Amino acid sequence: MTYVHFGLALVQALIIAKVVLIGRVFGFSRRFEDGPLIWPVLYKSVLFSLLVMAFGVIEHLVEGWIHHKGALDGLREIAAIGADEIAARMLTLTVAFVPFFGFWELGRVLGMPKLVDLFFSRTRRPTAA
């Protein structure tokens, strides 16, 4: 049994985390933060999915350039994947980002200490009066 797939998945997850942190540093994801939490969660999920896909395109362009194939070969590799596959990857990434940004927004609104307490400390049940 080979474990290469697990290692590749870990590297891809680290790359996606890097892209999310870069997007957070630039601060262009602060839209809709004053409204109901569903809007910033959905907005950030779609926005960061697009950003990850854009970095993927740039990665293929640079890879073609490094291997002396040219940028067009990098674009041909992306086109060879197919529109359906790209749309499926985009949808999967967007759906995977929804719970991530849901917890992120809860931490922003409630405060991270309160969120950590809700998940990891013993809570008392409210008593009926």
Oligomer: single chain
The shape, in one word, is elongated
Q: What is the H/E string?
A: HHHHH
Low-confidence stretches: none
Share in β-strands: under 5%
Radius of gyration: 19 Å
Class from helix and strand fractions: mainly alpha
Roughly what percent helix? over 70%
The overall pLDDT average reads 84
Please give the alpha-carbon distance between the first and last residues: 59 Å
- How is the main sheet built? none
Strand element count: 0
How many helices in DSSP terms? 5
Could you outline the blueprint of secondary structure elements for this entry?
Blueprint: H1 4-26, H2 38-66, H3 71-81, H4 83-110, H5 112-120
Descriptive overview:
It is a single chain. Helix content is 78%, strand content 0%. The model has no long low-confidence stretch (mean pLDDT 84). The radius of gyration is 19 Å and the shape is elongated. The protein contains 5 helices and no strands. With 129 residues, the protein is mainly alpha-helical. α2 crosses α3 (71-81) and α4 (83-110) packs across α5.
In short:
This protein is mostly helical and 129 residues long. Helix content is 78%, strand content 0%. It has helices spanning 4-26, 38-66, 71-81, 83-110, 112-120.
Defining traits:
single chain, 129 residues, mainly alpha
